[in-house]
């Protein structure tokens, strides 16, 4: 089984997730510049969710570029990731309307946390299904970036009950950490192609 | 005619079906943890429908991996399957809001039943369109799994008028039966590739 | 320019059109079997629109299978077709709620008519962009099927102001005419491949 | 990294953007021809947005046809473009309902302007990531068409506060300028293939 159709299906789901959020942007009843102000938080939350989905698409792309075979476990780990990501639009609408309230901010963090854990599981599952000298194993290493994200999301989700702005700040820090695509995989992949043994 | 474009189109439809269900998750008016409780059944029903669509995508993937040619009959059998699957989001919303009522539970079972029958027809149509030594024919055999699903869905749909929880339990049993991807096809395909004659 | 990406984009649009119609199926407030009766016309109209889109996907598939090159004119003729097809969900909802009223039935016929004309234009544009011995030219011939559809839709749309059932009957006749995929192209394509000169 | 998956993902997002606008077309409560009149502006605005998205899909297609490699910067420039384009449905609904009001017309122009700037940035990013004799560099040249669009959108957006029809007229002029696919790239690409050095 090749990864082509799994990638195509995931691309479809991610494209829909990233786009349907905009359906929640309801055009204002009035036609003044002021009437746009109430939807600014919704647009801002849409903007951030767009970036989060973009980061996942990016990393998903990198992950399956090196994946050589697909089995049932990888397939379901992938669907598990897509499930949590598919809840982002719902949570985005809620946080957009209530960005100063603890529960919506905590729920947003919870869904980001579960997505991060799902991505971690997917990565582990792919590594386990491949041989020892698999390029991803070397590239990911201890995956400190993935573990740090999980820790930060947990921290942000808890702190949202004390201060929502602090929680949102922490979520944004994770986005910045991941904004740059995972160059570790790309570098190792390039080395392998050139016949140079991948870095340990 | 190759199966590439049929698979791409089906992937698109399945990706949309699996994702638009989330549009029915309306963010609560209040911002307490308690305000999330009323939407828990909707999320749970979404979760199960997600798994059902995932199983169909999985089996669809396996089916067309071995399909060598496409004709008009296969094409319409495939659209017939997609039609019934496309009704799952509607039924999911209804059962999510009324999981203790007989009619929504029965309707959910009915749509799952029709989807199972449509998949069975699609499989038969593909087998009939191929030659005698076609790998799928050997792999599927008497298709006891498919027939069992149809029997269980019929039973669940009828029993929902007596006890909705029993009906839901039966639907979940079918999901568990199918959760593991159809290893019969994969094994036979692998054998064929390796030059070993497929099992009878 | 190859037709791959044009086909992928069209597949995406058609997959969305065929699926979003189901979003209009609103789950009933009550939970009796009777409460499903008011949505039966909507489901029936959804069923027919599903078949119409299926036919167009089918014929679109056949058309681009033989298309060897894409230019700007073909691209815009294709988008023109997608535009009219994208109005089918809107019209389907309206006719589903008012299947005994002249204007919704006429509008449905009008959109089917414009789609048929757009498909005819697309076919002509593709033929004009290819050389004389192009397989599609021979296969399509005088395209009596296409011209008949346009005549029937015009007739149905006009008759809907007298009798909506007669108009709906005519629309269904066109669907039956097209239900079988365009075997003319397939046969000619097969012949060409086998070195046999295509039928005149 | 090849551009295949980036193109597939972008196709998915563009297909959704171009199609979901139709969800805003609410079927009228009444069934007279007159009842369709209030939704005519919405259909007209949908028609124009359809053309704008079509133009972007077209130019995007041309752009990535010549792009030989993808990196993180190109990926995020592409997502940046998709973000602005994804706001077109929201803006289309608003302008459709209020086409004689300054703010919705200005907002529509603003989103078109930001999309044009995003496309310009994407083009620059791709050129910078390739070598000196890259075909796109020669083809695009000083990109007077891109710069003119940005100037016209800015002008239209400002003038909308004086006269909405004048602003809409300017937006349509930009659409006409871009309606013809970017033949510069196509011509240069053809020349390069034929071994003729591309025009300076």
TrEMBL record, chains A, B, C, D:
The record's listing under PANTHER family reads: ENDOSOMAL/LYSOSOMAL POTASSIUM CHANNEL TMEM175, ENDOSOMAL_LYSOSOMAL PROTON CHANNEL TMEM175
Give the main location.
Answer: membrane
Transmembrane parts of this sequence? 12-30, 36-57, 78-96, 102-122, 150-180
One Pfam match, given by its short name, reads TMEM175
Q: Which UniProt keywords apply?
A: Cell membrane, Ion channel, Ion transport, Membrane, Potassium, Potassium channel, Potassium transport, Transmembrane, Transmembrane helix, Transport
Query: Where does this protein reside within or beyond the cell?
Result: Cell membrane
Q: How is this protein named in the record?
A: TMEM175 family protein
Q: Which ranges carry the ABC3 transporter permease C-terminal domain?
A: 107-182
Reactions accelerated catalytically: K(+)(in) = K(+)(out)
Q: What organism does this protein naturally occur in?
A: Sediminicola luteus
Task: Name the family the entry cites.
Answer: Belongs to the TMEM175 family.
Alphabetized InterPro entries for the sequence: ABC3_permease_C (IPR003838), TMEM175-like (IPR010617)
- What membrane topology was assigned to this protein in its record? Multi-pass membrane protein
């Amino acid at each position: 089984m090749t990864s082509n159709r799994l990638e195509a299906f995931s691309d479809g789901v991610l494209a829909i997730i990233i786009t349907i959020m905009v359906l929640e942007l309801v055009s204002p009843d009035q036609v003044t510049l002021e009437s746009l102000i109430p939807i600014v938080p919704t647009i801002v939350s849409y903007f951030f969710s767009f970036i989060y989905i973009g980061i996942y698409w990016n990393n998903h792309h990198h992950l399956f570029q090196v994946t050589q075979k697909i089995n049932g476990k990888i397939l379901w780990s992938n669907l598990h990731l897509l499930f949590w990501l598919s809840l982002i639009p719902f949570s985005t609408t809620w946080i957009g309307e209530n960005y100063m309230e603890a529960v919506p901010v905590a729920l947003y963090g919870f869904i980001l946390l579960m997505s991060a854990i799902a991505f971690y599981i997917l990565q582990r599952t792919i590594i386990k299904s491949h041989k020892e000298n698999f390029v991803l194993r070397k590239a990911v290493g201890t995956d400190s970036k993935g573990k740090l994200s999980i820790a930060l999301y947990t921290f942000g989700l808890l702190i949202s009950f004390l201060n929502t702005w602090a929680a949102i700040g922490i979520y944004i820090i994770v986005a910045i950490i991941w904004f740059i695509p995972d160059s570790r995989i790309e570098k190792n992949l390039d080395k392998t192609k050139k016949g140079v043994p991948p870095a340990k």
